[in-house]
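Entry 14: structure prediction run for Nitrate ABC transporter ATP-binding protein. Input pasted below.
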Amino acid sequence: MTTPAIHYPAPDTHVTIRGLYKSFAGQPLYQDLNLDLPKGKIVSIFGPNGCGKSTLMNMVAGLIPVDKGQVLFDGKTLAETTIGYVFQNYRDALFPWMNAWKNIAYPLIRRGMAKADVTARVEELARMFDIRFDLQRYPYELSGGQQQTVCIMRALAPKPEVMFLDEPFSALDFEMTLFIRDKLQEVQQATGVTMLIVSHDLEDAVFLADEILLLTRRPTSVAEIVPFNLPRPRGAEAMSDPEFIRVKAHTLAVFKREMAAG
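Run finished. Output C-alpha cells:
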C-alpha cells in the first residue's frame, strides 16, 4: 500500500492549502491541490478563462465551500484569522444607504470597537490614501475610482493579516489604476499584509506581484509560479524595465502553452 506524500509548508508560508478538491455539476475543477503562499508578499493569480482563478481565491477566503481539503493561515483556521476582501464589482459591494465614512467604519463597528478608535482608524486610512473627496458623500455621489478606494479602505480597516482583491483594476481608468497600484504597494510595505490578487489582465498580474501563480486549464493545477523581484516602490516607469518585460514575456509564454494544451 502506497503511503500518501506529506507536503510540508515551505519556509515563510502564510497560507497553506492541502488536498483541495472542488467540482461543479460533477465536473472536477481542482483535484488534490497543494499550495503554499508566502507571508508578507503579493501573489497574483493568472490563467485561462474559466480555469477557476476567482473560485480558488474565494475558497481560500471562505466565500465558497471546498468539497475536500484544508486551508490554514499561519497554522490557524479562517475563523481565527482577520481577512479583508475587495470585490470586483465595487458598485454592488458598498452599502448604498451608508456614506463613504460609514462604509469604511462598518467592519470596525461590527467588532464593537469604541467610537473614538473607529474615528481614529478611519482618519488614519484617509491620510494613508490622501483622500481629497468628502467621505460624508454616498456611493452614488462618488466616481468609480473613489468607490473602489472606499472599498479598499474598508477592507484594510480591521488591519487584516491577509487581503484578497478580485479584479481591483478592471473598471478603473489608467490614471486611477496607477494611483491604486501606488497605494496598495505603500500599504503592503507599511503593514506587511499578505495580498492575493486575481487578474484577467497580464500587465496588472505582473506589475504588483512578488509571485505570479499561473494556472492550467480544467481540471486546474499550478502551471508555474513565477517570481518577480523588481524592487519597490514600482512606479509606471517599471513597465519599461527589462526585468518587467522579461517576466511579462515569460508569463505570456506559459499562458499560451496552457491555452494550446487545452
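Notes: The two ends are 34 Å apart (CA to CA). Will compare against the previous run tomorrow.
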